[in-house]
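pinning this so it doesn't scroll away 📌
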Amino acid sequence: MSHTSSSLKQLALQKFKKNFWGVFSFCFIILVGLVSVFAYVFAPDNSQVANQMHLSIHSKKPGFKVDMLTIPSQLVTDQSWVNKVFFGKKNTDTEIPISEYEVQEDALMYKEYASDGLEGVEKSISLNAFPDSRIDGYIKKKTFLFGTDKYGRDLLSRVLVGARISFFIGFVAVFISLFIGIFMGSLAGYFGGKVDAVIMWIINVTWSIPTLLLVIAITLALGKGFWQVFIAVGLTMWVEVARVVRGQIISAKEMQYVTAARALGFNDFRIIVKHILPNIMAPVIVISAANFAGAILIESGLSFLGIGAQPPMASWGAMIKDHYNYIILGKPYLAMIPGLCIMSLVMAFMLIGNALRDALDVKS
């Protein structure tokens, strides 16, 4: 039996490897996952939630360059490198975009950057504000590859950090939906009768409520926030899993191996967990991939409505909300870049779901 199972797994893996779009989507998802985990390593602005604002350089086009003066802070932040890698740097330094500067005796004269043809304010700062009275390394040319948003924040950094929410909401929501859905579907399909009737009534009631409205209601009950959205989305996606598991178990419990397990005296819990569930996981895996995509879209919609991840936390949906009016103001990239990110990640999960469906189809 184990040899046959191993052979089926190898066959499914070979079929999956032959699917170009499935492999490509898998590699893309792995890449996005790595970027999500190590976002602050790749982001040019590695401050917490990439929230360094420079209003004088707001809404600049991709590739914009400016001299950035960094004035070191006297505050000492106690932060481990692990915390910096995963949660961003507690940046207490002051960054000022400047258009020109000059060192005069014991002071640095600089002119703040001003857009739209305006003249920047001329200011000066003592060289004593810099270590060893040297400004080397404190004035650097900074390039914004994706431009800046309406608050002057680095758009590339916001996109990279925002990937974390969109990616991890899929994992949390799918985990919650699988836990509840498999439990409820197994009870309904295996025991039938009144248990099935009660659970199907719960499923039908939940199914009849529009998903977005149900998520909004749960979110308002739990409160606005990062983890609240994850839980709310997961609590609304279990019905699809439960219906699939129920249907599969109704068919599987009449199979000979289940009858043999009952004859050997195995209890119901062991029969469900050890014998039935491993044989019906193929459709569950496929629907989980679709739920990943659905969770990303729901979270983006909630952030767009303002009840998802709260500012200043970066979220692709919130970025679209902040900049959708720029589409008619000649700067559509501010909303299109996060929109394309959402589309790419959702498409990748849908393609990998199709590839898994084809690979796990025993009839082909």
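📌 and the second one:
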Amino acid sequence: MAKEIERKYQVKLDAWVPQGEGIHFKQGYLNSQKERVVRVRIEGTRAKLTIKGITTGVTRSEFEYAIPVEDAAVLLDNLCEQPLIDKHRHKEVHFGKTWEIDVFHGLNEGLVVAEIELASENEAITLPAWAGTEVSSDPRYFNSNLLKNPYTTWNKA
């Protein structure tokens, strides 16, 4: 069984400068229950169907399959929960580990988070200067929850 072990951090916007344009992502959810998430995503010129299980700690089951972009577009427009997630993803290597930095648009404008995939939950990492507060266990930051409770609606007091 495939496992995803991932930590997520807020990005300090005053310390991070994008290196390039990144890749445009458009994604939606056929199912966004916390026990199982079924996601459709177009990443630039490729598309994927991803199934994820419930998160325990920072680990969950994950199964991912390439699908035709045309099929993904139909699923996103006609079957996925709305609104869709719209973001640009940037990748940066820090101390030999690849970080994925997501810059959200639309109803999640202003949200920028960084994720790092790990080999184990206990794996030691060195945080980049732009990595802020860890939000791995805060369900508000799950992409599947951002469509129900967009960042622009959060009380940021």
